[in-house]
What does this fold into?
Amino acid sequence: MCVHNWKFAPAYSLARALVDEGRIGSVRSVSIERLRVEPAGKGGPGTAWRTSGASGGGILIDHGWHVFYLMQWLMGGALPRAVAATLFTNPEGVEETAEVLVSFDAGLRARANLSWRAGQRRTHATIVGAKGSLEIGNERLLLSEGQRSPQEFLVHDIPDDSYHSAWFSGVAAAFEKAISEGPDSAIAQANLVEARTALALIVAARVSAKNRGSQTNIAA
It folds into this structure.
């Protein structure tokens, strides 16, 4: 099961609804930024995996996982084809910052900027469509449609902490639905595709970084 709690963040849920309504036209690109001053829960119990190379930690498995399924989801399920990534690692070999460019089907593109070493905490995304764009913050969306004046949407959310517990009721409901409908159901199969895609993007980004940021194809 892909833990996709960011889909249930009020700002991202609203963004997807506006995309589905056709407010910005067909999506052409997505850019997502996750800036943090340190890893989540640093020094707390059960959080060492984030910064341990032995347990597969690093910012790609921490924040990248969520960013990669959001890219695909906001693009309506488009499949990624190639990745080019630059990673900066600490002396233990764990990546702490990442710049990732992803090429999707039909010429769609996405970008991720991830950091545990930023001077501020910032969560931001931009979706560009054929006839408009959306800028997404924690509790605010800005919709731009052609020559119209931008329209602001305010959404209520919990403080931007590391755990986002209020979003997990949506995750739990999706999990229960997948269990009740069985492993061959549409929701279960879509979830497996989402999880496989996120993992494939993480692996390809690390391969690309080892090859000086060269474009790396996504394993089928």
Notes: The longest helix spans residues 186-210. Residues 5-159+166-211 form a domain with the Dihydrodipicolinate Reductase; domain 2 fold (CATH 3.30.360.10). The beta strands are 27-35, 80-89, 95-104, 109-115, 122-129, 132-136, 140-145, 151-154, 216-217.
